[in-house]
């Protein structure tokens, strides 16, 4: 009979504090929350800001290297879901229902996501829109006080990370040309104070995107500018507290403007991506190094056919290991297009999920970051 391999097990008391820390920083959030109950020392360690920051940096790196894709979304009645897609599987196999925070009565709507934190707004009859920042992994949220300006139901919301001040900031800005203010408001989770900033150059922007795309830990939108024919990618830089236009591939912009095409932006493993749909083709671009114009690379050009148009006309949300493209379809939720085989299929069985209108998938990973302390 073959002997079983001997496993070396060290008693916990034989491990020094640095070794325990190195082990624990590699563990998932769910395990760490349980380990808080082991001892006061472990509870203190897991709550330390430098441990949370180290765990977050590791989670960001792993999210870029993971083979699968994790998304969070809401159904028509506001219920939250988290789904995982791994190549060769169905996304509904990893579907998890997330219990929403117990807050005020009304419809909670996801506006933005950054480092595992979700920015939600509450829409209630005859009340101004209010907001909160929520970490569903640790079940903590913080109430955002109402902005000083008047209620604006068409305003866009976003959230980004201030790397200089180690702070998370919420931004609310007008989305329509007719808004005369041309100003936005910024709320700091650290200081709990709103401040007013100007749009760049005093431009009038029109932003039709309801939810921004997070890349480089900051929110991005597609925007049109009054008096200009083209569209731009607008980013809110949380560190500088200002809006900046992000460089985009000239070929993509000119082709889309010339043919009255559609532009989507998306985030894949932390990189900013863009898809343009014009005439009978969809082009998919990826910025390999954020902020470097020369790093834009065209990955695919997909010819629109009757069997794939239901998916490829919508926003990409991921690229698999084999090079297939995941698309966010408003009714089917998640569709896949095999570039080599040139076929498309649905990867999600919606089952009891109540769909209707636009279902938007948001890339997501869990973190220990508390909205109450803004680590």
TrEMBL record:
Superkingdom classification of source: Eukaryota
Domain F-box: 15-55
Segments forming a coiled coil: none
NCBIfam families hit by this protein: F_box_assoc_1 (TIGR01640)
Protein name, UniProt field: F-box domain-containing protein
Origin species: Turnera subulata
